[in-house]
Amino acid sequence: MGAMESTLDSLTQLSSSPAFSSSSSSSSSSSSSSSSSSKETHSSSKTNPKRRPSSTKHDREQQQQQEQKPNLRRPKLVHRNVTRFYEIPFGPYRRPEDVLRSFGYELIRELDRGAYGVVYIAHDLRKEMKVACKQIEMDRTFHRNVFEENKNELLTIERVRHPYVIKVYCHFVVQGNGFNRMYIFMALADGGNLYKFIRNRNTLITEEKCRLYFAQILCGINHMHSVGIAHRDIKPQNVLLCSNRNSISGDYLLVVTDFGLSKVVTDQQQLAMSICGTPVFMAPELLQSKPYNPFAADVWALGITLFQMLSMELPFNFHQPQEFIIQSMMDKKIAWESAFRKTRQQPSNEYKQLVRSMLNPDSNRRIRMINITNHPWIVREYAMAESTSRSLRSSMRSHHHH
């Protein structure tokens, strides 16, 4: 299942609920706490409150002129407190491209396509720079899911500012005749994803390089956990590479992406119920459909990721029936021999010990994030990643985005 789909399942349920019929748009836009976008929608009427609608030829001409300036007038904001839904056709906005332009973006070309949708390279017209845009067709995933649970995830991610977490600039949904399309604009990662990067190399990465890469991923996830966000779909495919000579590995800055399944956890003791993620990265408690701690489940997925980064294999045999897979997890039967047979290098004992502690089937005994960052195998590199992150953050603050 594509990483964004669970959010979408739930978002789509909302768009088909009565609150999202076009009739609600008038009440939401007149409410006093309407968002900035709905304020913009009504900016033309505020400039001259006494004006009667198109009473004179002069007024009509004025109105036409204003409609030709898309920036003064956003498409109709259908609902304001969840995610931004814009309805077309409305005023000068006939197509989704018109809405994108009103936000200052233009799609250039397709970059990647998957079950979740299409990723484009887009142009930020105001900043004169290239960005990535993920476009998701929401109608295809009309499973009724609990929307309440993750209605604010993307809005939260927009607020997360960290060098090792992908920068999401903005997101919104365009509702047209027979379609709901979500657009997510984010920083462009020129190095592709970590999975393809490791796969396309002719050589395996060394343990030293693995430490430098993993420390950056750890730093990003640890930051998310510290602000109460569990990722819930950690895997090498969801780590992007951005060329950066100043990174601790000297080649790329690794950033965590794809928060479609992320969960904002307000109560640390609260267990999650919805089973989501990518099966081979799922902890045994998820495979058994038990209530689980989403942070501990992230640690398990990080353990599988770390194993895969060094061996390009998985620690368990996923070609067998699920009950056997779960049994081998419960018995801690990590496939060290077969996984590392092809590699010319044997992993160090410290590496093996860390992976074992992350892949502990008992989530209460599984190593905690704070202990991973202090583990002898990664502690030095993690400290480097943290200090680099601090200097990068101060430079991020000095040229602050959006």
TrEMBL record:
Gene3D superfamilies xref list: Transferase(Phosphotransferase) domain 1
Gene Ontology annotations for the cellular component aspect, listed alphabetically: cytoplasm
Matches recorded under PROSITE patterns: PROTEIN_KINASE_DOM, PROTEIN_KINASE_ST
One Pfam family named in its UniProt record: Pkinase
Residue ranges, compositional bias (Low complexity): 1-38
Any one GO BP annotation for this protein: regulation of autophagy
Domain Protein kinase: 105-378
Alphabetically ordered keywords of this record: ATP-binding, Kinase, Nucleotide-binding, Transferase
Region Disordered, residue ranges: 1-76
GO MF terms, alphabetically ordered: ATP binding; protein serine/threonine kinase activity
Name of the protein this chain belongs to: Protein serine threonine kinase
Naturally occurring in which organism (per UniProt): Dermatophagoides farinae
Gene name for this UniProt entry: TSSK2_10
